[in-house]
């Protein structure tokens, strides 16, 4: 809740964090997002937010967010890591998000610490911030709130955060860039430093760990270029992708630039206000999203949970996304995306789960009158076309931007708005 409007709230925050105004802060996480007004406001300020909330007594808040055209996923800070690699977010935020940050030895703060980039900011508003003036309204005592605030400050300091700025209802901590602070932690200190037994970037059904993730000395301590320059700069972790390099990423960007130009010729809705919520269902470097960056869309980049984990590259470029296994349901409500792009997904998934299950999940996610662009081997496209017909999608087959390429073709599908015949209802 933002009594003076979310714009005034973010204006105050941006005064406390100048990096929000100059392109240093580009990616953000809003835990306990409500209807994602914070992320919605930031979108207009060129900051891309993953807004996160569960379905609880606050009802379908993530559905409202997506209906408003704001990026959001269903999720909870609970026992499993968020599906996001380490050192990805430039900023994380909680406004009255009800997450018990100081419970369980600070486990939930450690998860925020993992996903924040060194130098990234953690912003808290609501209890216990400004408890001196606000405690009357919180059904608590001033002593209890003071104790909670003191505990929070101590925990954050012990995890290598420093109080960066504070005014009124907002407090900002910064994750340390100083390796010396992490060097003081060991697997037996409190808090402990994470050992190498679990990859810090592994985030698919990985239980949260009660330890502090030290930034990798090689790549994660360095400041990234500001937005929008960082979109075109290959980050150091491009080397986690097999065959990954700066030139491979540039080549991939070139491919997607040509592909998106071709897609727009075949599907004029792309690039218009008819398409807003877009998902790239199987990306490597986020090249498809990068080619759409000037359009009135946002793209959820999905990196396979069982292939090479290139999602860190996507975040380092200033794009957002999540890990996912397409043999499972995606953490979203029905009818929440306007366009799905599946590149080679069926060839990749065919040995793992049945194609019809993936297509039925796509149908669930796609809003009626939304589109799917499916790019795959012609053998798989034939099967996709027949299942899509059963789902009452209308699909047209096309060459890719490279006509001569017989190994890859396109299916552009339009989900119809239909209802059961009267006699069945
Ligand atoms: C009071 S609302 C605040 C919403 C929004 N941040 C605002 O200020 O308007 C609390 C939010 O926290 C979410 N929430 C509660 N516990 C959570 C948890 N463990 N992980 C993620 N979100 C949680 C709720 O679903 C809800 O979206």
What do these coordinates show?
Belongs to the methyltransferase superfamily. InterPro entries: Put_SAM_MeTrfase, SAM-dependent_MTases_sf. Its main location: membrane. Keywords: Glycoprotein, Membrane, Methyltransferase, Signal-anchor, Transferase, Transmembrane, Transmembrane helix. It is a single-pass type II membrane protein. There is one protein chain. With 425 residues, the protein is an alpha/beta fold. The chain folds into two domains: 6-183, Vaccinia Virus protein VP39 (Rossmann fold, 3-Layer(aba) Sandwich), CATH 3.40.50.150; 229-424, Vaccinia Virus protein VP39 (Rossmann fold), CATH 3.40.50.150. 28% of the residues lie in helices and 22% in strands. The protein contains 13 helices and 14 strands. The chain has helices at 6-16, 37-43, 61-67, 107-115, 131-134, 142-158, 179-183, 246-266, 287-291, 311-316, 345-349, 355-365, 378-390, and strands at residues 27-31, 48-53, 72-74, 89-95, 116-125, 161-167, 170-175, 277-280, 298-304, 320-324, 337-343, 366-376, 393-399, 409-415. It has a seven-stranded mixed beta sheet with strand order 3-2-1-4-5-7-6, with helices on both faces. Strands 10-9-8-11-12-14-13 form a seven-stranded mixed beta sheet. The chain is globular. The chain starts with 5 loop residues before the first helix and ends in a 10-residue tail after the last strand. The model has no long low-confidence stretch (mean pLDDT 95). The structure holds S-adenosylmethionine. Residues 1, 31-34, 52-54, 56, 58, 61, 76-78, 95-99 line the site of S-adenosylmethionine.
